[in-house]
Amino acid sequence: MADWLVESLSDKPVAFMLEMGPNGYRTRDDFDEVVCAQIVVLEDDVVMLRRSRTFLDQLALRSFSPEGLVLDRWFFDDHFADCTDGYLFTRDVRLIADACVAWFRDEWGTESTDDLGCDYRFPDELPRDVHVDD
Q: What is the model's pTM?
């Protein structure tokens, strides 16, 4: 699973987001704990991992710059209200993959990628160089 995740994150653009949860879990209305992970590609090859036992919101980040961020340290400071199990900024995609695999294996009994539900989101592009005929 870790190799699949590393490959899934390779050469992705800034603002790319990969969300993972258990396969088949479909509702946000259910109050049971659910294991979730969200990975967002930032600038300068930095990746953010957020883990939670509740559904994670899709962040509207003001900036994707890693300037001022502490890398390779796990945070539990409740900066993100929906992020119950912390977050990490790193350039080490293998670390992200290994953390996710361990998280889903240990907390949800996930044995393969077939057990995961995934949502990939690529950044939207604004319509540049569009000309309106007079």
A: 0.84
